[in-house]
Amino acid sequence: MADREFDVVLFGATGFVGKLTAEYLVGAAPAGARIALAGRSPEKLAAVRADLGPQAADWPLVQADSNDQASLNALAARTKVVVTTVGPYLRYGLPLVEACAENGTHYADLTGEPLFIRECIDRFGERATQTGAKIVNSCGYDSIPSDLSVYQLYRRSVADNTGELTDTTLVAWLKGGVSGGTVDSGRAMMEAIAADPSKASIMSHPYSLSPDKSMDPDVGRQTDQALQRASAIDPSLHGWVSTFVMAAHNTKIVRRSNGLLGWPYGKNFRYREVMSAGSSPTAPLVAAGMAGGIVAGMAAGAVLSRVELGRKLLDRIMPKPGTGPSEKARNSGWFTMRTFANTTSGAKYVCTFAGKGDPGYQATSVMLGQAGLCLAFDQLPELAGILTPASAMGDALTDRLRKADITIEVEPA
């Protein structure tokens, strides 16, 4: 890629998270980095660039449209890396992945959509491998904390010679808002399943993103639903835990990493994610409400997505794509993920992955920005195709995020 015009192109720079990512890249990109902003409207791109200040004044603007394959092909051919915030990816993302796969261009997105990733694997995985393109999905709060936490637990177990990972559970604490884009992504998947019910198994099966079905471990039932005392996970924890809304996606990414890396976590690796419901006297009720609310909400959304009247109702009551919390609200957010792992030797570890800022916005712009820079500038494993953050960038991205003031620490438990 030495003759490419750009190092990184940010596609979707005029969107809410796109603007945040552009703002982050202004301060985080190394001197001399060749960064361009891309989207449908040159006028809107110019306005975004003007707001970024003098450091971005010379960033080129590239006009490209998700519905214009030729423009996406031309975009991908000009750059080492495309970073995209244009979702829902199931609706708008496949043509860009095709363009990057064909041109051997690295790619990073924010998808939390298993249906989209399965489409990428099936349609473009072989071609991306042939051209050397690293197509890296889920490079935001979903699913970098999950994926890198387990990867670093594995690295520590290797360093200590304590055997393979077995039962591993991530517990999430966070303060943040709900993204209109995330809600719209959920709707896109519900509508896809309504049109083709066979796709429901991709959402429900723990290994639906596996790189090799014949190698899937047989470790019994692994459920994303939870309602239990936190101390059952580790004696140091108090209160109750419940279902984590992104567990169904994150766990598939972590299991795919295990497969892509050759199953180094172990064939008895069992993984799940839960969310803290606190330790107040009402915590059990809160936990039950969280678990039941997520199930009921998904069921209601699935039913409403099947008919036009239901879709119109969802349009009226759901957050709109491209919207997000105020700067004050984003700055007041935070997240802490603690992943507890057991090993075949009996050793136990915990990985803490924590940061400041709303996880779905502020922190996500940091993670996505650093993923793009990592793909553009760091020495990485030769693995290519449809990848995960850990399999594509494991140690390099971990180092970058630590330097970006995100805590990633592994300790004996």
Would you summarize the structure shown here?
By secondary structure, this protein is an alpha/beta fold. The protein has helices at 16-28, 42-51, 69-77, 89-92, 94-103, 114-131, 144-160, 180-195, 200-204, 247-260, 283-304, 308-317, 327-332, 359-377, 389-403; strands at 6-11, 35-39, 61-63, 79-84, 106-108, 134-136, 165-175, 227-229, 240-243, 270-278, 334-343, 348-356, 385-387, 407-412.
List its traits.
413 residues; alpha/beta; 15 helices
The tally of helices reads: 15
Ends distance: 44 Å
Structural class: alpha/beta
Order of helices and strands: EHEHEHEHHEHEHEHHEEHEHHHEEHEHE
The 3D shape can be described as globular
User: Rg from C-alpha positions?
Assistant: 20 Å
Number of strand segments: 14
Helix content: 40-55%
Q: Round the mean pLDDT to the nearest integer and report it.
A: 90
The strands making up the biggest β-sheet line up spatially as: 3-2-1-4-5-6-13
Report the biggest beta sheet as strand number plus sense, adding barrel if it closes.
7 strands, parallel
The share of residues in extended strands comes to: 15-25%
Low-confidence stretches: none
